[in-house]
Please model this.
Amino acid sequence: MTAAATTKTDAVVAFRRRAELAIAGIGLAGSAVLQGGFALVIARSDDAALQATILPALRSAGLELDGAQAHVVLNTLAAWFGFSFIVVALCTAIGFVFARLRPRRRATGWWFLAAGLACLFGTQFVLYPVAFFFLLSAALFAVRTPTPRSSS
Model:
């Protein structure tokens, strides 16, 4: 190898976004369990299971829904949670791809910000602790910049 090629490869140092991807992965797992789990449980429950288990739990939490209205309200909420989970998963997957392809780009954080906002608004601010993981990952993309190492 020539001296010019050696200095060029020394200047390019591998930079990985492990922390950002791990934090976003934790957020995606929490979103899958909570948003996807809620949507799955409500969508799979029939009217008898809804009346026997889910409505008493909601009433003990302070939500008063009558039997006829409860099925429509809960199915609508489950559909909204399911749709917003799909948006969160897509934004996170796109963010993972761009973070792996070009880890030095700070603009990839916008995908994780979009995932956090979709989680936040898609659950009507219920899952703000889960959205915090996405927002933290986006903030790390904005703050953490790759520093070139010295070649000596």
Notes: Residues 95 and 111 are 5 Å apart (CA to CA). The mean pLDDT is 88. The two ends are 18 Å apart (CA to CA).
